[in-house]
Amino acid sequence: YPSEFLTQKLTEDNQIPVHLHISMSLQYVAGLKGNALVEFFHGNIAEVENEELRHLMWSSVLFYKSPNVEVMACVLLSTKAVYFLLDDSFIHADEHQSDFWNTENSECENSSFHLSCCFVLKLNDLQSVNVGLFDQYFRITGHSADHIVTCLTRDSYNTHTFIQQLMAVLSLLARTPSPEPVDKDFYSEFGSKNTGKMENYELIHSSRVKFIYPNEEEIGDLAFLVAEKMDGLTNLQPLDILLYVLAFQVNHVKGSAQNTSLLQPKTLILTSSDLFLFDEDYISYPLPEFAKEPPKRDKYQLADGRRIRDLDRVLMGYQTYPQALTFVFDDVQNQDLMQNLTLDHFGE
């Protein structure tokens, strides 16, 4: 161990997304190749001697206890646990983290060491995995609020690959088998008699971990929410969501020495008539079983919305992925340009 194929794959996956900034400690990890990467894992991260590193992924992550702080992480999947190698600055980014993180190493702050903290979620503690719409993100849920993490991959391929690797690793776990299910008819199996709504599509793995995928109703609920923001235009035409994608809105910082820009996470939704930007809560929904009250904010909050007919042009950058798009809209907002024309204009 490890095979040459796996070593090569880990090296290929060890690529930081170019648009996200990371600390010196994580840059060091990103520079490791092949066997050096495996040795680093066993020497610094692995908790058990005989565990194997199976998959590596760079992703933004959110924690249930701090839903407003998105942080870059190196996600390492082994045969025993999922490790989230985090930027040390994350501890100081949120004042509510004092009880969440163990800060014993604070005396090292002024030394030349670059610290990273590692959040560990053991596979035996894993209860469910919720996959987001169109595989743009997924949420891993353990047995408490401290053990809920969302990975914002913003990439269906990365999500799919991680889920496949996680299922393969979970198959190696020795867990007691579930009791034999009682035969149920179709309606009691797939429907909730209390609400009349179809439940989300669930796949129960042999390790008893639930993999929960969104069903068609989630798109319907989202379409209804978007329709509410469109000032009654939906009476004229059916509303179809053409595109749902997790993106960043670029805000340039004025007066800075370098031409820096802040990237604000946004959910972009395109319909046949409008373009919307939403602030979405990726971590709180669906509610975990131990949650005693609903989250303080809605899942979707409208940040901006424009009509496609007001779109003047779209500017595309020539850089490689991720692509930057600039949407330029007309200054005249919420006005139909044709409404002021009368027959007098076409008279003699």
From TrEMBL:
<dbReference type="Pfam" id="PF25625">
    <property type="entry name" value="PH_NISCH_C"/>
</dbReference>
<dbReference type="GO" id="GO:0010008">
    <property type="term" value="C:endosome membrane"/>
</dbReference>
<feature type="domain" description="PLEKHM2 PH">
    <location>
        <begin position="114"/>
        <end position="178"/>
    </location>
</feature>
<dbReference type="GO" id="GO:0019894">
    <property type="term" value="F:kinesin binding"/>
</dbReference>
<dbReference type="InterPro" id="IPR057714">
    <property type="entry name" value="PH_NISCH_C"/>
</dbReference>
<protein>
    <submittedName>
        <fullName>NISCH protein</fullName>
    </submittedName>
</protein>
<dbReference type="Pfam" id="PF23142">
    <property type="entry name" value="PH_PLEKHM2"/>
</dbReference>
<keyword id="KW-0963">Cytoplasm</keyword>
<dbReference type="GO" id="GO:0032880">
    <property type="term" value="P:regulation of protein localization"/>
</dbReference>
<dbReference type="InterPro" id="IPR053015">
    <property type="entry name" value="PH_domain-containing_M2"/>
</dbReference>
<dbReference type="GO" id="GO:0032418">
    <property type="term" value="P:lysosome localization"/>
</dbReference>
<dbReference type="InterPro" id="IPR057288">
    <property type="entry name" value="PH_PLEKHM2"/>
</dbReference>
<feature type="domain" description="Nischarin C-terminal PH">
    <location>
        <begin position="241"/>
        <end position="347"/>
    </location>
</feature>
<dbReference type="GO" id="GO:0007030">
    <property type="term" value="P:Golgi organization"/>
</dbReference>
